[in-house]
Design a protein that fits this description.
With 109 residues, this protein is an all-alpha fold. It has one domain (9-104). 66% of the residues lie in helices and 0% in strands. It has four helices and no strands. α3 packs antiparallel against α4 (91-104).
Length: 109
């Protein structure tokens, strides 16, 4: 593999625009996760309170929660976008880093 990648400016602009669109959607999803911590309507039994607390944890506050997962995707995609925006010069270095970050995100938890 080459140590240097050069992308044509129109290609760079298109890739950066796609990344920006995806980042906008991820930011919107991140705002939605604020509401995931509001768990009401489960009732007053102890088991209901435990169930509500479990759903709130899945929403935010733990490394496996929806909010933290979205933040991880935003970070990885931002790095990828910035690598492409540099004209491809940083892509070779960043390529393996963002792939490693994405692979580290266990989407099954």
């Amino acid at each position: 593999m080459s140590d240097f990648v050069r992308l044509e400016p129109p290609v760079i602009d298109e890739i950066v625009a796609i990344c920006n669109t995806a980042l906008t959607e991820l930011e919107r999803a991140l705002k939605t996760t604020d509401r995931l911590q509001i768990t009401e309507g489960f009732g007053d039994f102890e088991s209901a309170r435990q169930l509500a607390a479990g759903y709130a944890r899945k929403g935010a506050g733990t490394p496996e929660s929806a909010r933290e997962r979205i933040e991880q995707f935003i970070e990885a995609l931002t790095q990828l976008r910035d690598a492409f925006a540099s004209g491809g010069e940083a892509f070779v270095e960043a390529e393996f880093d963002w792939v490693r970050q994405l692979q580290a995100i266990d989407v099954d938890t």
